[in-house]
Amino acid sequence: MAKDVNPPRGNRDFLPLEKRKREQVLGVIVDTYASHGFQQIEAPAMEDIGRLTSGQGGDNEKLAFRVMKRGEDLERSLAANAGPDDLADLGLRYDLTVPLTRFYATNRAKLPAVFKSIQTGPVWRAERPQKGRYRQFVQCDIDIIGDSSELAEVELLNASLDALATIGLSDATIRVNHRALLTANIESLGVSADQAGSAMITIDKLDKLGIDGVVAELESKFGDQVSAKAGEWLNSIQGELNVPAELEYMFSTVGALHPGKLRFDPTLVRGMGYYTGPIFEIEHPGSGSSIGGGGRYDGMVGRWLGTDVPAVGISIGFERAVDLIEGNLGSEPDGIVLILEDDSAAVLTNALKIQRELIESGEEAVRLERRPKKLNILLESLGEQGFGRFASVDDKSVNLAALNIRVIG
């Protein structure tokens, strides 16, 4: 019986041209962010499990992949009949925000007073795999730590809209809300402060359940008085809404450069429990789900430092964004294949010299291949991999001007 050779569920392989496109898109996003004064950093893929499950990661904490203890530590835990949670001391990061706050706490003395970071890389969540949801996926974040003013939010939103436009997603818009406004609206329904989180979870399902579904779920949780008020509130906020005073500065400044790209949505929740101020969600007409989001999380860094530091960030959901982009951002790949006419050292030496000259002349990819019995099959296969030209090399002296480069196909 043949063995299953597929990647683990929720994980994917990327073929060469797919990988090339992903690197192109990621590179353009990072370059755009860097042009706005943000700086790239890198943090480990693993963090202490206690930090990843400290209560700041919201529901994602339940999805953290644990890394078992090793050696004598593991043996001691097993001998003590430790439970599953006590057998792990590390975990794979489920987002880039928790590692960033630890990074900042560790390196604060070496960083500027206002730190503007770029982070990209894979994260892991024990999701139930389905379309658009993977167990390993790439995030692309920018964050500003150390600035409590609205300038930080404006910079993040402006840079993100610029980056999205640069990769061809100029139709993207950003929904904006404020956690203080959301909390006040929920309390006005008659929901107590200690139950506000539960109400937010239900309101966050508005896109899936619709108003009637949300009202019904709120009734089951809090009774008919709360649900009746919720129905009135949700029906009253349909259509275009006036921007509240708390968000006016943000809308006017970002709107001056990106007219119509921000939309106030008083029902926007964002699932993370660490948000303390404005929150954002990026949407695109070609996607049925958000393609990014973020918000202000002023209380998070202080958990590690003992003193609060203002912080705000936004993430582009790379997997969903790249799926919306057709073709390559740059030129199509057009590599050259050098066909070695025989296996002699003279032919190989000549081919290596020509390869070097072609690379130095600016060619992006030059590949060596021994001549097979059926050259057309080899060239057809390589043509599908982005090699559009070929030339034969023998043991005679050949310069670039004399090299007969032909088009594959």
What portion of the residues fall into strands of 2 or more residues? 15-25%
Sketch the major β-sheet. Answer: 8 strands, mixed
Number of domains: 2
User: What is the approximate shape?
Assistant: elongated
- Determine the structural class based on helices, strands and strand pairing: alpha/beta
Rg calculated over all Cα atoms: 27 Å
How is the CATH topology of the largest domain named?
A: BirA Bifunctional Protein, domain 2
SSE string: HEEHEHEHEEHEHHHHHEEEHEHEHEHEE
| Count of β-strands | 15
Low-pLDDT runs of 5+ residues are: none
- The spatial strand order of the largest sheet comes to 1-5-6-11-10-9-7-8
| CATH architectural grouping of the largest domain | 2-Layer Sandwich
Question: Terminal Cα separation, in Å?
Answer: 39 Å
Q: Give the overall average pLDDT.
A: 91
CATH class membership of the largest domain: Alpha Beta
- CATH superfamily caption of the largest domain: Bira Bifunctional Protein, Domain 2
Please give the count of helices.
14
- Helix proportion: 25-40%
Oligomer: single chain
Search tags:
BirA Bifunctional Protein, domain 2, alpha/beta, eight-stranded mixed beta sheet, 409 residues, 14 helices
